[in-house]
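Quick question: what would this complex look like in 3D?
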Amino acid sequence: MDSKPSTLVAIWDQALPLLQKEFDDDQAFATFLGESYIDHIDGGEVFVVVNSSVAETVLQQAKYQSMVNEVLQRITESNFVAHFITADKLSAYHTEKEPEKPQYFADSVLNPNYTFKNFVTGPSNREAFQAALIASQQPGKLYNPILIYGDSGLGKTHLLHAIGNAAKEKYPKMRVLYVHAQEFLDEYIKYVKGDKEGASIVDWFKNSVDMLLVDDVQFLSNKKATEETFFSIYNNFYQNGKQIVLTSDQHPSKLNGLDDRLKSRFVQGLPLSIHAPEMETCVNILKTRIQANNLNIEDFDPAALEFLARRFGKNVRELEGAFDRLLFYTINIHPVKHVDLETAMRSVSGLVDVKEDEEKLSEQKIINTVADYYNLAPYQIQGNVRTSQIAMARHISMYLIRDLMDVPFQKIGRYFGGKDHATVMNGVNKVEKSLKTDTALAQAVNELKERLKK
Ligand code: ADP
Ligand code: MG
């Protein structure tokens, strides 16, 4: 619909006489709709300005509302919903709707999904988490600057946003800016090219930002002019006790190509490392994810979660990806009520070669090696199918785990869909007994032990 001022005037000029007829009380018509006009049309909504808040209230009543809507429909042959509003309220509405955009980093926002509450802590990230929490509650006081470094996918970006979100919750007026170092570079280039009018970028930071969160500072390496500017901004924040938190993929002393002055500043701050989460932390991350999806933790075998943790835990992003894949699989492809190890392994079989597991001896490595030897998939050995060949491979796996790793029967059971102590013991005993008489089996077990030494 064309909403040029002239069109709006034309529509209302036609509507008013029709409405006057409908009203059948000229006095009332003049009181409520005298001096009214259409201010604008937004989608299917027509905003009509009226001259008093009484008129506003009266006209919002269903009776008048549908009267006006019908008249508009007759004139325009489209369906519109009329809103009545006084000029004062309308101007307040306009200013609320379009806050002035800042001169720099206008698109920068904090991601509300990254909070301290949904960050799972463990020995691998506790220090970084604590420092981040303190920075958000007492900005610029205790630790400033803070630099969190570590490999990709371990929660650095999550922590930066969490700091920003928590600081804004505690200090609603605080102007927090989250920027990725790449965005800083882009904005700096626009500034140098003269695309930005008004304050210099350094002054803008000085006057418009209270807390600065810069992600992946390694991106500034070998960008001399940008580093220079960043250095000025950094010093200004530091001297004025404004909180700065940075992240990078390495300890600052190892950030090759970064200006030495910046490097030494970063080292003087508080560099804190973040590592790959331990098994327990990984499982807790998965449990939080299960809860966040409104699913029941009881429906997931511990062995299934441990499998994902062991296989993908070096990178939480990948761990989450594998878990999403598992959900997709169990909902869309192979619906199950209970998620066991076999299901977990199948669901991610496209993501990794589940046969290749860690170098060092582990229950999974033994199972994978046995599976390979008998041309089976690990999930077949770990599942419940009882053909004689699979059952035998299963018993041999149990036997080898017991023999080589001395793992309690019950714990071994976990790797085989939660089999109990007695079942595992029987399997192991059967193999031990047969070994004495069955030379082919003895040969196979020896060969498997040889392969496991590699
Ligand atoms: P980085 O910035 O270190 O590469 P991210 O912060 O982007 O890593 O984290 C990758 C994903 O893993 C994000 O979805 C994040 O929410 C999640 N994540 C990482 N660590 C944790 C944790 N300890 N608890 C909960 N989620 C985490
Ligand atoms: Mg990141």
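Answer marked as accepted. The first strand starts at residue 37 and ends at 42.
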